[in-house]
Amino acid sequence: MTMVSYVLKKGKAVVLLSTMHDEKAVDDNSVKKKPEVIQHYNKNKGEWTQWIRWFAPTQAENTEVAHAGAKHVLRIQPDEHVFRGETVTLTCDIQGETHTEWRYSWIKDGHIHSNTSTPEFKISSVYESDSATPKPIVTVSPQNSVFTGDTITLRCEFTHSTGWTILWSKNLKHINADSAQTGTLSDVKVSNGGKYHCRAQRGNYYTHYSHAAVITVTERPKPVVKITPDHHVFRGETVTLTCDIQRETHTEWRYSWFKDGLDNPVSTERVYRITSDKSHSGKYSCRGERKQDSQRSDISDALLLTVSGQWLPVSLIISPSRSQHFSSHSLSLSCEDHNNSTGWTVRRNTDSERMKDCSSTGSTCKISSLKTSDTGVYWCQSQSGENSQQINITVHDGDVILESSVHPVIEGDTLTLHCLHRSTNSSNLTADFYKDGSLLQNQTTGEMSIPTVSKSHEGFYSCKHGERGQSPESWISVTDSSDQISVLHTLSSLLAVCPYLIVTVVLVFKCYRARVSSVEDQSQYAVTEEETSI
Fold it and tell me: pTM of the predicted model, to two decimals?
């Protein structure tokens, strides 16, 4: 400890006591030859400093002793860095001493600010600060625009001192969240979008609100798979699969195609073309990834592609692709040529018309307003007599129809049926599904699936809604995977194309029987005559 006496000016002497100096060294480089204790004091006097008056018996009462060093500590609450409006408490802690033995003088910038008999000095609502009222900054990760189901992390950037509580608000309404600087929104919904702010609180003091971080949450798009010429093709046909992300520009996305639920994509093009063979049969789905931020769409519903071993030169394409249709709705049928041959037309057999040409223009048949009399069998026929597979069309004037495939189902595949309502053309209704007149399932979604079909699933299917009525029945046939066209289907096709064949067969059979009977009668008569003559 060192004590020095220094004469400031005539008639004014100051005695300084310091535990930070071991000798009474004098700064010879200064003009006034000041002691180093004085230099140390002058260097630090801009801060709040505690001065302690000490009355010694051998000194005048107005002698001031500067007591600076490790034996006393100045503490500041809440922090050394405060802002306008906060309350500050200064505490002079003289270690190893009882505070009642001392009186305290509080000095600011070299001037006595106040005298107290206690070691605490409180300043209510400070009016100066070395900076303006702070404003936090909100940051968003990974980005401000996201899809439903994503996770967003909000962070309130505020680095001023300690002891602060972070307050969050959305659209200027307080959020009952914790006081952490970082907040996470998981599995976000559209309702989570909005303007987010934060501010900090310490005691009764609040910072400004941050600038708004605008978060936009939109429904995650779901692609739709489109397939041409049809989801049922034959070996050697070219199949085009298109991944369509509605309401979006396709150039903004990268695409991935998946087969049978496998993770490895089979193609990364929006339009996926294949020359089909048996190995291409399966369920295809696609997904998009936005180029600008790598945001992913939902994965599309899987579409089943069936490749049959038998190849026909032409396919009948029907739109909408189902066997049952509502009356007054439209229907389009067209012949898709695979051999570049010409002269294909759409023909039909109905209750009112036999072997009638249905084509309105070339190889296309368009019916703008269906009638129940349009119910029948439709197929494509060439000028040389070649025929495509036949499709059964049922037109219903009720309010409910069954949506089923127009082609047979291959063993082992999934059979999916939908119950559709006329007004909405949607399957989102509760429905009972029947097979051969017996209740099979009750579904609240209007959809029924059989995961792995077999021959036992063949039969007549229909659906029924409690208030809106029942659909007609549709025959669902199941074929072996090696050859989708069964013998029964081939026979039915022949009968559809040649409705008079069976009549001809019956007439020939009757003629044959009549001829045989006549011969037998003649023989019997001859024998009788011979017996009589004997």
Answer: 0.39
